[in-house]
Amino acid sequence: MLAVIDEGIGIAEKDLDTVFDRFYRVDEARVRKNGGSGLGLAIAKQIVRNHQGEIQVKSQVNEGSVFTVTIPMQKAGEVN
Q1: In-domain check, residue 21
Q2: What's 43's domain CATH number?
Q3: Are 2 and 72 a contacting pair, CB within 8 Å?
Q4: Among candidates 4, 2, 32, 31, which has minimal Cα distance to 15?
């Protein structure tokens, strides 16, 4: 498991279901001047899924977010 924690602007609860969608961006009033394309989390989700993993987010507005990635792994030398 890997967790990425920030103390940024957070994500509103209403947006948590769509935050991993392609081209999704938070409310423009809350975005920094340099913004973004809205692809980063969608790409991260696809990479994690390609490894049979899962990515989740927990967030509170004005407190930050925690993104958790879980990818199944095997011990060295094990074969499926």
Answers
A1: yes
A2: 3.30.565.10
A3: no
A4: 31
Two structure tokens written together for 28 = 């423009």
More confident residue, 31 or 54: 54
DSSP letter string, 21-44: STT----GGGS-TT---S-HHHHH
Mean pLDDT of the chain: 88
The tally of domains found in the chain comes to 1
Taking the C-alpha atoms of residue 53 and residue 41, their distance in angstroms, rounded to an integer, is: 14
pLDDT at 53 over 90: yes
Domain hosting residue 38, numbered range: 2-70
Q: What's the pLDDT band for 37 if we cut at 50, 70, 90?
A: confident
Joined together, the tokens standing for residue 20 give 């991993």
- Kindly report the length of the chain: 80
Joined tokens for residue 70: 């879980």
Residue 40 lies in a domain: yes
